[in-house]
């Protein structure tokens, strides 16, 4: 049965929330706001009772896959468990009901939280300062590149190019373009590291920065990271770390010690904040001292036992959003770090252990293009299945849904043919990994024995394979009355 | 089997010592330390992280409660502060539903067949936002209102091939600052037109808008709470071949006021926090972005579309992904990936809870209570209305003592006063931006006015 959209549950005259009755003198609205400013027709929003509303969204929630319902081996996305107490903390009135324009003396608890969190993030990253403004990883990339640009221009250098490895996330080149940089792509070598010879050729006086992900998107540590930093610094460029894979390094090695000058962190990937079906996230950026003057204003500062917001930063790149970051997400981040303390190291140890264990279970059944010790994730290839049975990775991914698992990331990184990128995270138990491996091995087996079933998967989901081509060709991005008649 | 040396059990980590040993054996790795053998020794951290000790859940929560209690939140002080974030009533049902773990702990809906809940909810949000703004298409969300405006400026440059935007100084100062941050390195020139008496002067906009202008950017109600002449401004923009970009910082106003789509806006960029989202000390909030149909292929961010499955059933997918960074890389419309999906979902539940009638009544309650407060305040000696233009739920008055000082005295009486405007507009050192939403009762307004009276005669 088709799930109705909420407009199809609408009955004129119903309402789920009654606004307060006017208890002030009844002056004509025309006199208050001006007749010419009054809306002619009301917005055609749904009209439902509170129970209608509850059932609708509860049913929608039941049509969703989530960490709380099952294993999410989505490589590069680090879908770990989101602790419940963090949600309770973020919902405390003192945080959730605090107005962002509250003067600093009346928001000391919030500012102290941010200040303490900054100290912790500096210790974990090996950096000196942090900005909380960026709302997501990509936003952090943009912020960081703008700081790099401001720093170089301050030195009188107008550098125009940013180097990005071919294994990078799409946000890297896209963020560079938003900052007006030209993107130079450098290839990876046969071990999956950035190719040093190619990097040397690209590294000249026009290079502002290298954007590197470490461990990279193949789940491999950049073995020559120190040499890479030497090459980039040698040409006068800065080292930027895409912190998407920070979960592999906590307490093991620090980006600041690897030669990076600036990095962003994806707190939903690393520090267990929920991802909300696409967001909100937060992408705090940590910098070495040389970039501190350019941080977005305001920054959080401590003077004696008082905390304040410092907006007087003449070299700042300016704000990247209206208020000071996704504070509610940072409450969760702070709570997460307090739950671990120095045991944070075990997060990375367990994440890397889980990935290596799962890789050992799966490697007999799939191609492994880069056969090295993996970090927190690994990338298999479905090349064998494609060549032998004509089955594409996407189809195997869809078949996994039938077995109750979310699919891994597929077709990324772009340098691996039929890529299957698996990241188990540290919060999954051995039993879960065994069950997942069994399911994926079974799917690999079905490619030989029951190819049609795999090719047409999924079969047990609330809808079968959806037509993305016609969705893009005949755009339907909003519900209309015509849709109601046609349904 | 012996447990792994040094391993301490933790409530978020399932591994037992025996399991670690067994898993290492399967993986063919000698020890936990050996998992990291590819990391050069020179960069390894050879000491424990210097972090506060791990706290058990009870102590952790108590510490956070203690920090939270040191904030003057809206349950402690009765707030008359807006200026870009608004304290509205949020029906309980909103976060009971948006807060369901199946929504909260989900990732971006890359596997559509198991993410129909999120996708349908986003499609419904897009529809409701179109209805509220009077626009044709809306995306699934941006970070916040200010960054949405920055993206709208870039979008208008891409659509027109022109490299200048004209922005009114009556647009929220944070929005203008973010606009400059976003456009600085893209060769987009930002020209600011000063407000006159709290309004954007239509003639000055006309004078500033030549054939090189991609967009005219105006906010209504504006940073002073005044309702702009949207149609006249849109005409000026269109006469010069530029787009009209409407910023909306207070979408509750659209329950009562003419929506941007009705007064000729081409792109709407706004803040969705007031639609069912908490104040959160500034975030997470909700960037709203809507546009005319013709511009959909230049829209940044995610879009959810309706389609059918192989059995002809209706379903929803992410669409036009070929515009996005993971496919287009440096040629994408924007670098945005993670958005504010959960806040958009909360906004949708909020709008559905109120419906057309409820949105109108909430908006009316805002307008009526704000006007009541305005009348009462300006009846006090020394307080006068700064600007004559009609307002919605915020207004500027000039105060006989510095607004900061007034706020400090009000705080002692349990009120969070309005914004002292001097920091944002130096020409208004005695300007006080007061906000009154439907969440403020008449009793609270009367008590506030009495406290203001006492503070200014003291």
Beta-strand content bin of chain B: 5-15%
**What name goes with the CATH superfamily of the largest domain in chain A?**
Type I PLP-dependent aspartate aminotransferase-like (Major domain)
CATH topology of the largest domain in chain A: Aspartate Aminotransferase, domain 2
Can you count the beta strands of chain B?
15
What does this structure look like?
The complex is a heterodimer of chains A (487) and B (458). Chain A has 487 residues and is α/β, with parallel strands linked by helices. Chain A folds into three domains: 6-63, no CATH class; 84-342, Type I PLP-dependent aspartate aminotransferase-like (Major domain) (Aspartate Aminotransferase, domain 2, 3-Layer(aba) Sandwich); 345-473, Aspartate Aminotransferase, domain 1. In chain A, 38% of the residues lie in helices and 11% in strands. Chain A contains 19 helices and twelve strands. In chain A, a hairpin with a 2-residue loop joins strand 8 (299-303) and strand 9 (306-310). In chain A, helix 3 (84-90) crosses helix 12 (327-340) and helix 6 packs across helix 7. Chain A is globular. Chain B is globular, with a radius of gyration of 26 Å. Chain B has helices at residues 17-27, 57-69, 92-98, 101-104, 116-133, 145-160, 173-183, 202-208, 230-239, 260-263, 325-328, 341-378, 403-412, 442-457; strands at residues 78-79, 137-138, 164-168, 189-193, 213-219, 243-248, 267-271, 287-291, 303-308, 314-319, 384-385, 394-398, 415-416, 419-420, 431-435. In chain B, helix 3 packs antiparallel against helix 12 (341-378). Chain B has 14 helices and 15 strands. Chain B is α/β, with parallel strands linked by helices and 458 residues long. Chain B has two domains: 74-87 and 357-457, Aspartate Aminotransferase, domain 1 (Alpha-Beta Complex); 92-352, Aspartate Aminotransferase, domain 2. Chain B starts with 16 loop residues before the first helix and ends with a helix. Chains A and B meet through helix 1, helix 2, helix 3, helix 4 and helix 5 of A and helix 1, helix 2, helix 3, helix 4 and helix 5 of B.
């Amino acid at each position: 049965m088709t799930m109705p959209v909420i407009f199809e549950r609408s009955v004129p005259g119903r309402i789920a929330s009654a606004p307060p009755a006017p208890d002030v003198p009844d002056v004509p609205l025309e006199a208050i706001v001006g007749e010419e400013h009054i809306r002619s027709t009301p917005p055609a929003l749904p009209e439902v009772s509170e129970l209608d509303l509850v059932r609708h969204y509860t049913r929608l929630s039941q049509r969703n896959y989530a960490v709380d319902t099952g294993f999410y081996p989505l490589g590069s996305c680090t879908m770990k468990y989101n602790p419940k107490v963090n949600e309770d903390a973020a919902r405390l009135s003192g945080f959730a009901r605090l107005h962002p324009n509250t003067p600093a003396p009346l928001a000391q608890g919030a500012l102290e939280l941010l200040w303490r969190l900054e100290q912790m993030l500096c210790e974990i990253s090996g950096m000196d300062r942090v900005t909380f403004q960026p709302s997501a990883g990509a936003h952090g990339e943009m912020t960081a590149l703008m700081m790099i640009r401001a720093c170089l221009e301050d030195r009188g250098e107008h550098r125009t190019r940013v180097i990005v490895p071919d294994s990078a996330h799409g946000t890297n080149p896209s963020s560079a373009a938003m900052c007006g940089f030209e993107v130079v792509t450098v290839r990876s070598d046969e071990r999956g590291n950035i190719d040093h010879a190619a990097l040397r050729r690209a590294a000249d006086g026009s290079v502002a920065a290298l954007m590197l992900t470490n461990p990279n998107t193949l789940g491999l540590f950049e073995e020559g990271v120190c040499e890479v930093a030497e090459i980039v610094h040698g040409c006068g460029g800065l080292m930027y770390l895409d912190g998407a894979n920070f979960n592999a390094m906590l307490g093991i090695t620090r980006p600041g010690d690897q030669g990076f000058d600036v990095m962003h962190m994806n707190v939903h990937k690393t520090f267990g904040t929920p991802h909300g079906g696409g967001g909100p996230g937060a992408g705090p950026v940590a910098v070495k001292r040389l970039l501190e003057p350019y941080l977005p204003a305001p920054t959080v500062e401590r003077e004696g036992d008082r905390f304040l917001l410092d907006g007087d930063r003449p070299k700042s790149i300016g704000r990247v959003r209206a208020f000071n970051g996704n504070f509610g997400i940072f409450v969760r981040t702070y709570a997460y770090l307090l739950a671990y303390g120095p045991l944070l190291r075990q997060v990375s140890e367990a994440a890397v252990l889980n990935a290596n264990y799962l890789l050992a279970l799966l490697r007999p059944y799939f191609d492994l293009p880069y056969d090295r010790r993996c970090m927190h994730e690994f990338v298999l290839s479905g090349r064998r299945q494609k060549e032998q049975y004509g089955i594409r990775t996407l189809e195997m991914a869809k078949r996994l849904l039938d077995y109750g698992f979310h699919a891994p990331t597929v077709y990324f990184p772009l340098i691996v043919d039929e890529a299957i990128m698996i990241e188990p995270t540290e919060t999954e138990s051995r039993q879960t990994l065994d069950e997942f491996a069994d399911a994926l091995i079974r799917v690999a087996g079905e490619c030989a024995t029951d190819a049609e079933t795999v090719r047409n998967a999924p079969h047990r989901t609330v809808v079968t394979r959806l037509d993305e081509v016609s969705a893009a060709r005949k755009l339907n991005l909003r519900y209309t009355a015509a849709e109601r008649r046609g349904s | 089997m012996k447990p792994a040396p040094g391993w301490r059990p933790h409530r978020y980590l399932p591994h037992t010592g025996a399991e670690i040993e067994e898993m290492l054996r399967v993986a063919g790795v000698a020890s936990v330390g050996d998992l990291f053998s590819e990391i050069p020794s020179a960069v390894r951290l050879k000491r424990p992280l210097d972090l506060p000790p791990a706290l058990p859940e009870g102590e952790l929560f108590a510490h956070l409660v203690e920090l939270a209690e040191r904030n003057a939140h809206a349950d402690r002080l009765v707030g008359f502060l807006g200026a870009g974030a608004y304290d509205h009533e949020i029906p309980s049902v909103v976060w009971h539903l948006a807060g369901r773990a199946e929504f909260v702990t989900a990732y971006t809906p890359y596997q559509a067949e198991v993410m129909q809940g999120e996708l349908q909810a986003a499609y419904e949000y897009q529809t409701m936002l179109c209805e509220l703004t009077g626009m044709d298409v809306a995306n699934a969300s941006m970070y916040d209102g200010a960054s949405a405006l920055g993206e709208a400026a870039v979008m208008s440059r891409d659509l027109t091939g022109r490299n200048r935007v004209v922005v009114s100084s009556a647009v929220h100062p944070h929005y203008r600052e973010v606009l400059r941050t976003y456009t600085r390195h893209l060769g987009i020139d930002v020209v600011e037109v000063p407000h006159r008496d709290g309004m954007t002067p239509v003639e000055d906009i006309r004078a500033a808008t030549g054939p090189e202008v991609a967009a005219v950017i105006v906010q209504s109600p504006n940073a002073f709470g005044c309702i702009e002449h949207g149609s006249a401004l849109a005409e000026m923009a269109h006469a010069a071949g530029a787009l009209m970009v409407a910023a909306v910082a207070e979408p509750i106003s659209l329950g009562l006021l003419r929506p941007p789509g009705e007064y000729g806006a081409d792109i709407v960029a706004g803040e969705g926090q007031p639609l069912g989202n908490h104040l959160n000390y500034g975030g997470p909030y909700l960037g709203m972005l809507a546009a005319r149909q013709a511009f959909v292929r230049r829209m940044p961010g995610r879009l959810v579309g309706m389609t059918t499955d192989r059995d002809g059933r209706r379903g929803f997918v992410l669409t036009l992904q070929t515009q996005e960074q993971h496919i287009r890389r440096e040629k994408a419309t924007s670098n945005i990936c993670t958005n504010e999906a959960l806040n958009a979902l909360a906004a949708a539940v909020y709008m559905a809870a109120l419906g057309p009638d409820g949105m109108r009544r909430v908006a009316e309650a805002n307008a009526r209570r704000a006007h009541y407060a305005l009348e009462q305040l300006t009846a006090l000696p020394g307080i006068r209305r700064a600007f004559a233009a009609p307002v919605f739920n915020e207004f500027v008055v000039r105060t006989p003592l510095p607004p900061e000082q007034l706020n400090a005295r009000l705080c002692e009486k349990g009120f969070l006063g309005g914004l002292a405007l001097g920091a944002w507009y130096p020409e208004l050192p005695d300007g006080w931006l007061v906000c009154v939403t439907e969440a403020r009762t008449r009793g609270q307004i009367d008590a506030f006015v009495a406290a203001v009276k006492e503070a200014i005669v003291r």
